[in-house]
């Protein structure tokens, strides 16, 4: 049963499992204690820190272990902002950062600080010049991921780091998705990561802060982890996390190249096998193991369940799979289609056969969902009589508004307008995306009594 | 090799180990995901929450899992204070709470709030009436441990809860040391605990918040754990934590009674076997497995190492074993002797033979440390000629100032004064404690150019 969602959580690496079992016996005591069990625990903790620091490319005393990647980001951002409060209270981030970064930014704004979100291009990549231009004299911190967690696009970290250095702004790099594949380009001031993304256990994140970077840990004081991560350390898990990081790094070059080929195959074949699909993200500058695509006229949750029944575990950035019923902020920032969105992230060891079977199953899964929803097939050929038409899709959820739009577009002549009334958040993203994919013109959006009115001009 | 420091961290319970191994295979995926691995993880998380809630005595939806007991306290206190900010910014705590509570209180004070620390008696127990009197109209929260982590004394939680209820103030109970032994008396509003104290793995704390208690989680928003504990949950460890809590509870009555007998034996025999020892804490209203005593004229760290070499792992609240060179705040609040302090906390399964061997080893260990330090033996018998005497102990660390005091007290006649100049924090606690133990009169303390001047009148 292939599991294709390693970007959420990777199954435990065999080396992690082995290290964890050993550390359960040797490393359960308090490493701050002076007796033999404490000293043994301290030795394990020190060795894990050395190993993790080597993989990160920093000194051991620059790195602390946190309870998760999210906590590393929350506490790292809060500490860096507080450390430079005298400089200002402005934070620069890309628009496609992890929600832990964007929620930290929202907390800063709620507390009276300012945030600039640097937009990304259609592939999800920030432009280094645009990022540099968003640095201000009062910028306390900049944050940029090494690679995107939803679409795999690599960010220009080296150039952005250089711009930050020139501006005297510390750069925090969220390396959660890439650290297992290799170190981050030099030049960062703070770095965060999460062990269960590289096959370590859950409960372990990393926060590295370069010597000389101003940092003031927030919250109540605590002696653990240089005062930067309060609470008893999650020790057996930390040992396992460090051991598996070293193990996956040894396999990274070969396994990365192999998975890159499998992902290339998915990127190439999915649009051939499934009509009306948009493969998103940068085809070259990307994580080796991750690919994301969106399927027109498809309900993401239904597709996800269909793939699950067929034995494939994938995730989705479609609005119907989120608790807030809004599409992924990454797809939104990219302006990509969000309906029928599927992220495939291959764990190490994924076989060619697994991928071939996925490519066999996917077209049937998509077409069955489209049939259930009564999605239109083929191009619009009718002449159309009404010169203008209003489609009331209020109360209908993704992908229904787009399906209904596709069904009525033929009712207006070429040059005619269709106005879609919708209160579904996904419509804002998916109607323009549909226009792009079907050769229609997206005229724009205007406010309406409920939701918004989206105007489309028939072009074909 | 008996490990007698279960109050710091208990070795992993066999049930926890078994549950952890099973959950490593079944519970590594993201419980928020819709595919089968996610659903399996969700089932495990839900079952663990049900089990933990049953042991705590609350509803499952009132309980979240945190990365540690410390984080449960930090986040629980911050959330409860913020939830009642309109009422006021005053916090009432006992003087002997865990440092995570006292550091949260210090953070509140630094942010402009107010804190009342309710003193404890000589046994380390707060008086419920005094606690009630420390509740004010602007008190946002009160916090009281169920039992003390250093001396084992149980606090009058039921009476304090009743007083808090009458005053309309929510009570947070830190149950870290007692939850494995039984549920906390009803009436609490928030409850925290830590799994590695009951034989669960590290990396898991509990925070329960009763329905209806105002709570506003602080820090960046996050969807996990009802928005109260951000970050990917430490799932296999959570499963193991809940399983071992259930297991230790089943053994609690029998094992508690057995360990209580062993601790009674230590409490009775240590003063018989070792001269000049103070056994601290309440002899009756106490945790079953924990006992603490202090040895006059002894360096805590040296004693700890001597016991370690003899095969016994214990902890100490002496100043020389802390990174800040200050004695434990618990011993300070009790006014107990802090030098040569040893905490013994027996893990489940400790045998009578282990305890007997400890009682055999301890007197030799204490006397060897006393010999090394040249500690005085026997009572003061000399007549003394100088009517007043100043002892310069500046720059000398615990227990040297007290040893030197004991050596010179005979140089003044009965009724004469010795003034000890000391800049050692422990002197403030240990000179009065020495006076009490040796029948001398502690006159008081006055400021000095360096440190303080402690005045003692010879009485015997």
TrEMBL record, chains A, B:
Its EC number is 2.8.1.7. GO terms for molecular function: cysteine desulfurase activity; iron-sulfur cluster binding; metal ion binding. Keywords: Iron, Iron-sulfur, Metal-binding, Pyridoxal phosphate, Transferase. Pfam families: Aminotran_5, TusA. It catalyses: (sulfur carrier)-H + L-cysteine = (sulfur carrier)-SH + L-alanine. Its cofactor is pyridoxal 5'-phosphate. CDD domains: SirA_YedF_YeeD. SUPFAM superfamilies: PLP-dependent transferases, SirA-like. Residues 391-415 form the UPF0033 domain. Belongs to the class-V pyridoxal-phosphate-dependent aminotransferase family. NifS/IscS subfamily. This is Cysteine desulfurase. It comes from Streptomyces netropsis (Streptoverticillium netropsis).
